[in-house]
Design goal:
Blueprint lengths: L2 E5 L3 H12 L3 E5 L3 H8 L10 H11 L2 E4 L10 E4 L15 H13 L5 E4 L7 H6 L7 E4 L9 H6 L4 E4 L3 H10 L1 H5 L4 E4 L1 H32 L3 H9 L20 H14 L3 H30 L10 E5 L14 H11 L3 E5 L4 H7 L4 E2 L3 H5 L4 E4 L4 H4 L3 H4 L7 E4 L6 H6 L3 E4 L4
Parallel strand pairs: 1-2, 1-4, 2-3, 4-5, 5-6, 7-8, 9-10, 9-12, 10-11, 12-13, 13-14
Helix pairs in contact: 1-3, 9-10, 9-11, 9-12, 11-12, 12-13
Bound molecules: uridine-5'-diphosphate-xylopyranose.
Uridine-5'-diphosphate-xylopyranose binds next to helix 9.
């Protein structure tokens, strides 16, 4: 039986560790953060992810999974997965590789001869080869990018739609086939690549997804100008299987810990490689994305004051949603929270609700007001802004909210609410890209 370690127990690492135990491996998760390790050791997560706490508890109890801060405890592992973060640098677009470098160095110090160090973090192309050059000759390096989505992390890791491995030897591929034996039995597509291609697959996939979202948001802008309806347009083009109907939800755009930072780091790396023109379009993708937030703010102004320039001082605005997407408490680069903060700065009395992300949102924006219930959030509001499409918001009864608000105005920033239902209940309903 293979024994593996997972270095870095954040979002990616904690999920990978629990899922690898579920796939039958012996797993040791390691992190330098003692508090995090103490919590994980009793199956507690510092973030919200459906099904993950249960999986952690199951395998901690069953003895297949343990967590530690002591690197000596991973010395006998056959494969080490490096899952630490690569955030955007504070002073530019590039990715900060300091955590990846120190994780590889720390593992290299204790790893037994012949073991395989596998990078899962999203890194600029060329990082793997540079790291391989720093390892002793008796250790080998591979790259195995991760495509999990927040909110579906367990499902995506247990049943990935493909496994991509960057290797430099058959032996490394065989070891990874042993790790993923269960997935291979279930016919998960297996793509063997060289190191740079494996690194590029991840950023290329995220760039494509970001492009798809910005494409439909650009169409939303044109629909607004021309009197069209972007939701109908998306449905119609999505029937073409070459286009597909997923990731065509127009709205306030993409956020989170991956898409925005990954496309920026990709542009920065292309520049270093002398390939900037190839990724110039990503700059436009980024601007379309940020413009969607501004369009909501402009719409709020016209909705409430009839003009784009007036201040919002006398208005109360209820914001439904703080997380960057539903089923997550992640507020990193959250379009919803960014809009809430900008409207607050413009003088409005803003109250934010979210089913899971209030605490992390409070930490990021302590000046904003938060409500524990939807009712408290909308009470006395001149306008409701729907910015993260949680199921509870999609299922709201417009009639029951009516007596609570000051003005029956709602703006759907995610094109996820039933417009007819709200209008029939007497609400003024507006949405991005729908004239
Ligand atoms: C993404 C990738 O999907 C995943 O493969 C990669 O490993 C990490 O980055 P994630 O950040 O969890 O995953 O979120 P995702 O579901 O991709 O959504 C990203 C953002 O795009 C969210 O803010 C979401 O609200 C937005 N989005 C998504 C849209 O605005 N419209 C859509 O149609 C789809």
């Amino acid at each position: 039986m293979l024994k593996i370690s997972v270095i870095g127990t954040g979002y990616l690492g904690a999920t990978h560790a629990a899922c690898m135990a579920e796939l039958g491996l012996d797993v040791v998760g390691i992190d330098t953060d003692e508090k995090k390790i103490a919590a994980l050791s009793v199956g507690e997560l510092p973030f919200y992810e459906p099904d993950l706490p249960e999986l952690l508890q199951k395998h901690i109890k069953g003895g297949k999974l343990k967590f530690t801060t002591d690197f000596n405890e991973i010395a006998d592992c056959d494969v080490h997965f490096i899952c630490v973060g690569t955030p955007q640098m504070k002073d530019g677009l590039a990715a900060d590789l300091s955590y990846v470098k120190s994780a590889f160095a720390a593992v290299a110090k204790v790893a037994k001869p012949g073991s395989l160090l596998v990078g899962k973090s999203t890194v600029p192309v060329g990082t793997a080869q540079a790291l391989a050059a720093t390892l002793p000759a008796n250790l080998e390096l591979a790259w195995n990018p991760e495509f999990l989505r927040e909110g579906f992390a367990v499902e995506d890791t247990l049943r990935p739609n493909r496994l991509v491995i960057g290797v430099t030897s058959d032996r490394a591929e065989e070891l990874l086939k042993e790790v993923y034996a269960q997935n291979l039995k279930e016919n998960t597509p297996w793509v063997r690549a060289d190191l740079p291609t494996a690194e590029l697959v991840k950023v290329a996939a995220n760039s494509f997804l970001a492009t798809k979202i910005s494409f439909i948001n650009a169409m939303a802008e044109v629909c607004e100008a021309a009197g069209g309806d972007v939701t109908v347009l998306a449905k119609a083009i999505g029937y073409d299987p070459r286009i597909g109907n997923r990731f065509l939800q127009a709205g306030i755009g993409f956020g989170g810990g991956c898409l925005p930072k990954d496309i920026r780091a990709f542009m920065a790396r292309a520049e270093e490689l002398g390939a900037s023109p190839a990724l110039e379009f990503l700059r436009e993708i980024d601007s379309i994305n940020l413009r969607a937030r501004q369009r909501v703010i402009d719409l709020v102004r016209t909705e409430l004051s009839g003009s784009n320039n007036m201040d919002l001082k006398s208005f109360k605005i209820a914001v439904l949603g703080a997380a960057f997407k539903p089923d997550s408490d992640d507020v990193r680069d959250s379009p919803a929270l960014d809009i809430a903060a900008q409207i607050h700065d413009a003088g409005a009395d803003v109250v934010v609700h979210d089913p899971k992300a209030i605490e992390p949102a409070k930490k990021r924006f302590p000046n904003l007001k938060f409500a524990e219930t939807i009712e408290d959030c909308v009470r006395g509001a001149d306008l409701i802004l729907h910015l993260t499409e949680w199921k509870v918001y999609r299922e709201l009864d417009p009639n029951s909210l009516k007596p609570l608000v000051k003005q029956t105005k709602i703006l759907d920033g995610r094109n996820a609410l039933d417009r007819d239902k709200w209008r029939q209940a007497g609400w003024q309903f507006h949405a991005l890209g729908r004239s």
